[in-house]
Design a protein that fits this description.
The chain is built from 12 helices and 4 strands, in the order ααβαβαββαααααααα. By secondary structure, the chain is mainly alpha-helical.
């Protein structure tokens, strides 16, 4: 028969062993007991302590506050993966802003927020630029080196954020609005971006040329929802006949190694919308 052995926490032996010996005076007994206490404490196993720096890395040097369905969160995660940066995604509950989020982004109170060694960076496009600058020596550059090319990608990225988010929420049925007008707005924006792909990409596979760039991440983060609302609202937006370059780019983007793990298949977006969107509300957002 075998017997399990359980370990018990270390406890120092009693140090008042001289209490009953009247041969020693009270003062002498106290001095001896104090000495024994110090000896036993020195021999006791010490619990390792952790420096403040190691305590920080024990949680995560890089954390992202957000939710996986948000295109703004998705673009931050793609940028980090593109640079090979390890991170922790801290999921924010639906409809309930955490104390950490409110403390990290007290002005806009929105996701995503990047926490780098505890220091907060807000707004998704700003975070992508921050990632590119801080980890400049890792992975491909996200923003182009040429000032004009960099300005062009920033312009079109802002254009994406002006035209897509609210229209996609209308097509999802998340916010009230005219779905035909929303579809027309997205379709017109995609036509402009078809031309921008040729200009910015210079005939190569991505807006950034040979690799994913700033505008690829800004627009690509919406592709999952664009494909989802095509199915849900019965509209055709990424039309291969009208937008051959952009349709091929979308397939290339979704297949890039930095993308699939953070932007799931269309089915999951549709399922999320069905389960969470509910009755349409007035347009508002808690992410950017």
């Amino acid at each position: 028969m075998t017997h399990a052995r359980t370990s018990k926490p270390y406890r120092p032996a009693s140090v008042s062993i001289l209490k009953s010996h009247s041969i020693f005076s009270t003062h002498q007994r106290q001095r001896v007991n104090n000495h024994l206490s110090s000896v036993l404490a020195a021999e006791a196993p010490q619990r390792p302590t952790m420096s403040p720096e190691k305590q920080e890395t024990a949680t995560a040097a890089v954390r992202v506050l957000g939710r996986w369905p948000s295109p703004f969160v998705i673009r931050v995660l793609i940028a980090l993966r593109l640079k090979g940066v390890e991170y922790e995604l801290v999921e924010e509950a639906m409809g309930n802003r955490s104390e950490l989020l409110l403390a990290s982004n007290p002005v806009h109170r929105k996701i995503p927020v990047l926490l780098h060694h505890g220091r907060a960076v807000s707004e998704s496009l700003i975070i992508v630029q921050y990632v590119d600058e801080v980890w400049a020596s890792q992975g491909p550059a996200i923003l182009p080196a040429d000032p004009h090319a960099r300005a062009a990608e920033r312009f079109w990225s802002q254009y994406v954020d002006d035209k897509f988010p609210t229209a996609i929420r209308v097509l999802r049925g998340k916010v009230a609005g005219d779905k035909d007008e929303a579809a027309a707005q997205v379709a017109a924006a995609l036509e402009h971006l078809e031309e921008a792909l040729v200009q910015c990409g210079r005939g190569k596979g991505y807006f950034g040329g040979d690799s994913l760039g700033y505008l690829d991440i800004a627009l690509g983060s919406h592709v999952g929802w664009v494909r989802a609302v095509e199915r849900m609202a019965q509209v055709c937006l990424l039309d291969e006949a009208k937008l051959p370059n952009l349709a091929a780019w979308a397939d290339r983007f979704c297949a890039h190694p930095a993308v699939p793990d953070v932007m799931p298949h269309t089915d999951r977006f549709v399922e999320f919308s069905i389960n969470n969107d509910g009755v349409p509300k007035a347009a508002h957002t808690n992410s950017k």
